[in-house]
Amino acid sequence: MPNVLKVYLENGQTKAFRFESSTTVKDIVLTLQEKLSIRSIAHFALVLEEQYNLAKIHLLHEEELIAQVVQKRDSHDYRCLFRVCFVPRDPLDLLQEDPVAFEYLYLQVTLGLGEIMV
User: Fold this and answer.
1) Which residues form the Ras-associating domain (predicted)?
2) What is the pLDDT of residue 60?
3) pTM higher than 0.85 for the full model?
């Protein structure tokens, strides 16, 4: 499907987004913020994960155009993930201000530890 970006979430779900030539990374992040009811969006970003080297991810700048990201990278070699990239200084503050974002961070950390232990 051309002009559709699949974004993988920490809970195993994927979200598909139709995009146009002017759609930015920030547009996708803000749409995810609304769909997931996240208030503390400043901690989140989209990243590209290399399929064959899971330890290597590329942080996408919020002003990047999705069309250029998809063109630049061979889409078969990368997955787009919605991640907590900017960890709060005190996660308990995040729990109090945005429990949904805290749960997302918790899932990300615990699932990541599971991958390391395997």
Assistant:
1) 1-100
2) 96
3) yes
User: What are the residue ranges spanned by the domains of the chain?
Assistant: 4-117
Pick the CATH number of 4-117 from 3.40.47.10, 3.40.50.300, 1.10.10.60, 3.10.20.90: 3.10.20.90
CB-based contacts of 59, cutoff 8 Å, min separation 6: 45, 47, 85
Is pLDDT at 75 greater than 80 in this prediction?
no
User: Tokens at residue 13, please?
Assistant: 């779900």
DSSP string, the chain: -TTEEEEE-TTS-EEEEE--TT-BHHHHHHHHHHHHT-S-GGGEEEEEEETTEEEEEEEPPTTSBHHHHHHHS-TTSEEEEEEE-S--S-HHHHHHH-HHHHHHHHHHHHHHHHHHH-
Tokens of 50: 């290399």
